[in-house]
Specification:
Layout lengths: L6 H7 L11 E5 L3 H13 L5 E4 L2 E5 L3 H10 L6 E5 L5 H10 L13 E8 L7 E7 L7 H7 L4 E3 L4 E6 L2 E5 L3 E7 L2 H20 L16 H7 L13 H9 L9 H5 L4 H14 L3
Bound molecules: iron/sulfur cluster.
């Protein structure tokens, strides 16, 4: 049985990093518990200051981030990624939720694990994160069943993808991977991944009673979005062109509100209305 929590060990040494409001920190995320535990043991042995979030992530001072990553990578530990730790009012809740978080799972689950392989800040909103994680098996055959049970999902048979929005998060399921944009933080990301795993396993158990839906919804393309934008390439949104903005919007990496002309100029009011409805449906409003 795996040792799931190194926090007490760290706590007994009395040297766990104290988070201070006026300092900058980074969160380093590991793909699974084995890598996370290995990394934390190395950091303890090397007397590196870090705050344990869970077996899957640690907080380190921003100025030590590169060096800490190098230390664990040199010992052959895998890292999913790192991103700024934002001191939030709910900091204590954040750590409490992380420590209490236990991924669900049964021995006979169809999908046993989802491994977090990439995590970084969202381009549209640096306070949110985006991630890529991999399934431990191919989900292609299950996607039409998930298309039946997930309300508002958009299925693409040729590409073997299913896209849907969960509140403000944009979720893309592929045959062997999942991408999530606009997760609140790493705890939110774990919860989303765990929710997807639970949904996949529940759907698999009920395939006898679910009618697979191979229907593809009318897809919105970047060129269609471009058609509704002001097309002035003014760069106010931070993108070089309106087309680049359209592509990023479709990928959940831009926000509609960042296009100031569309939001403020009366002549674009009708386009704005259409775009808002479309963005809400795609979860990128
Ligand atoms: S702010 Fe709007 S009009 Fe200007 S480049 Fe971006 S998308 Fe185009």
């Amino acid at each position: 049985m795996m040792d799931r929590d190194v926090a007490p060990m760290r706590g007994l040494q009395g040297d766990e990093l104290e988070i201070e409001k006026n300092k900058k920190y980074e969160i380093i995320v590991f793909p699974n518990q084995d890598e996370g535990l290995k990394a934390q043991r190395i950091l303890i042995a090397k007397c590196e200051d870090f705050k344990h979030i869970s077996t899957l992530a640690v907080v380190v001072p921003k100025e030590r981030n590169q060096e800490v990553c190098r230390v664990v990578i040199n010992e052959n530990v895998l890292i999913s990624g790192h991103y700024p730790f934002l001191y939030r009012d709910y900091e204590e809740d954040f750590f409490k939720a992380a420590r209490e978080y236990k991924p669900s799972g049964e021995e006979d689950d169809y999908l046993k694990s989802i491994t977090l392989c990439y995590v970084a800040p969202c381009m549209a909103d640096e306070k949110k994160i985006r991630l890529i994680a991999y399934f431990d098996r191919d989900m292609s055959e299950l996607l039409p069943y998930l298309n039946s049970v997930i309300k508002g999902a958009s299925y693409n048979k040729n590409a073997s993808t299913l896209t849907y929005a969960k509140e403000r998060r944009l979720i893309n399921l592929y045959s062997i991977k999942i991408t999530v944009a606009k997760a609140d933080d790493i705890i939110d990301a774990w919860k989303v991944l765990d929710g997807v795993k639970e949904l996949i396993n529940r759907t698999y158990k009920n395939t006898d009673t679910i009618k697979p839906n191979y229907e593809e919804k009318v897809k919105v393309t970047a060129l269609q979005i471009y058609g509704w934008l002001p097309k002035s390439n003014c760069k106010v949104c931070g993108e070089a062109t309106c087309l680049a903005f359209a592509v990023k919007l479709l990928q959940g990496e831009q926000k509609l509100s960042k296009c100031a002309p569309l939001s403020t100029e009366l002549r674009f009011a009708e386009n704005k209305k259409i775009m808002q409805e479309m963005a809400e449906a795609l979860g990128v409003a």
